[in-house]
Structures are given as C-alpha cells and as structure tokens.
Sequence to fold (250 residues):
Amino acid sequence: MDSKDIKLIIDGKRLDGRGFEDLRPIKMRVGVLKRADGSCYLEMGKNKVVAAVFGPREVHPRHLADPIKAVVRYRYNMAPFSVEERKRPGPDRRSVEISKVSREAIEAIVMKELFPRSGIDIFVEVLQADAGSRTACLNAASVALVDAGVPMKGMISSVAVAKVDDVLVLDPMKEEDNYGQADIPFAFFIRNDRIESIALLQMDGRVSKEEFVQALEMAKRGAMKIYEMQKEAIKTKYIMESEGEVNEIE
Ligand code: UDP
Fold:
C-alpha cells in the first residue's frame, strides 16, 4: 500500500484517539537500578526505556580524561526484541548518531567543569520502541542524572512533532512516524522553569517555515508538560525514600 493511501487523521482525531497536541501517556520511576548512581525507567506511549547514570568517576581508558572538565559519554542502545523486526545487536549508524546528538544535548546541562579528569557515563536501553525513542531516552537520562546527584544547570525535556495528513501533531507514534510527511525531534534546556534554549533539533522530511515555527511552539508546550512530570517523578522518589521505601522494580 502506498503511504499516501494511509489516513492518519480521521474525523479530526489521530489513529490512537489523541488530539493534535496530546502527548502519549507518560510514566516514570526513579532509582530503579541498585548498581547505578542514578536511574530512571520511563514509558512514553508504547516506548519503554531505562536510563542508568554512573559517575562522576574515574575515566577508562585513562587517556580519554580531560584535565579541565568531566567527559560525558552517552550510549543509546536498542534491544534486539524492542522492535517488530529483530534488531541486530550492537551499535549501528543510527544508534551512533542518536548517541552523539543526545550527548551533545546532555552536555549543555551538566556542570562538567566541576569534575576535571572524571567521567559521567549515561547508558540508555530501549526495551520497546514505538517512535520517539530518542526523546523518551533523553527524558529518562535527564531524570537519572538528577537521581545520581550530578550538578546540572537545568533539565532536558524532549518531544517530537510530526506532520501527518498536512497537519502538525505532537509526540508521533509509530504509524505517524512511518507514514507521515515529516518528523522533528526537539529537546529543550529548561532552567528555572523556563525554556532557555534548544538542545537538540533534527528533521526528517519537509515542512514550511510557518509550519516549523508552529512545530517549535507545539514542542515547547509539550516539553513543559514533560518537565513537570520529570520534577514530580523525582519528588516522588525522595518522598518514598524519606518514608523508608525503595523505588526499585521488584
Ligand atoms: N525502528 C525499528 N527498527 C530499527 C530502528 C527503528 O523498527 O532498527 C522503529 C522504532 O519503533 C523506532 C521508530 O522506528 O522508535 C522510529 O525510529 P527513528 O529512527 O525515527 O527514531 P526514534 O523516533 O525512535 O527516536
């Protein structure tokens, strides 16, 4: 079937019943991994991801250490069973690209200069993917960094906007990503409850200048909602901890 034959908007609603500017349901749980310094399990629609942060700690191999600031490493990895067609294990062009742009986004918020000669390692594992996995991973990584107690200038909140059937929609799911006209993942640097700058911006497909401006505004509103959920998830962990409960998944 030609992608033009697939209708993604029916009676003003998306295939999963959402309005154009609705996020998928989001769930977060902070501190789920015992061995990591900070961690977060996150669901964004059908995406299921886990982020683990280690450090600041000694860098291995040693020659990678920077005498004036911490080295931040970010590894995005998809489990072979996370997608419909088995994914070959190990890094590929896509995961290397996602790891690079995500690291650059995270580097904007980490106060690296406080930790010369050390390393901060962020691992994100996609257990189930349904489009927008890089945005889900960034949201989880940002929360895991807070959980690890890494000093940061703010938070990263991330969401994509897609163009489908000639309209812009927030947080596209798989069908919208596959058959839509454009997909634009955004990540924002948020400081003092305000969006300070764009930390990641990619684009697959084409949109007009006016549509891009609209997409940016839509993404900003979506990211602010995610940011509130990230703060809430972190608070929940501390409340549970103060009551002697553990937030690990049993
Ligand atoms: N996908 C897949 N196999 C792959 C890579 C991606 O089935 O090897 C799917 C997966 O559901 C992913 C979606 O395609 O979430 C969109 O991938 P994209 O590269 O746009 O990244 P994402 O939107 O997940 O950040």
About this structure: The mean pLDDT is 96. The chain is about 30% helix and 30% strand.
